[in-house]
Amino acid sequence: QVQLVESGGGLVQPGGSLRLSCEASGFIFKWYAMRWYRQAPGQERELVASISSSGSSTTYADFVKGRFGVSRDNVKNTMYLQMNSLKPEDTAVYYCNRDPNYWGQGTQVTVSS
User: What is the strand order of the sheet 3-7 is part of?
Assistant: First the structure.
């Protein structure tokens, strides 16, 4: 069965960096586009970034452009989200996603001094 497991979250100070990972199993990873979403307390889940199956095409939400970078390793069946210049408003649970409706359990990112 499809499994997506996020890791790499934690507590970081404003201006700091984190790298999230999403390890995939149960399907042919290189065939599928993948996405990162996030959900802050009391807010709806929102799309952060997406990456094509080959990794050649990426898109970002305006609020992370220039700060976050999405990538993937189709040999390791893993997607990454490099997050730089983190802000308190980036605090959320981050989820990886694959169509049609597969989600990981999420990893908490807290940006606070």
Answer: 3-7, 18-25, 78-83, 68-73
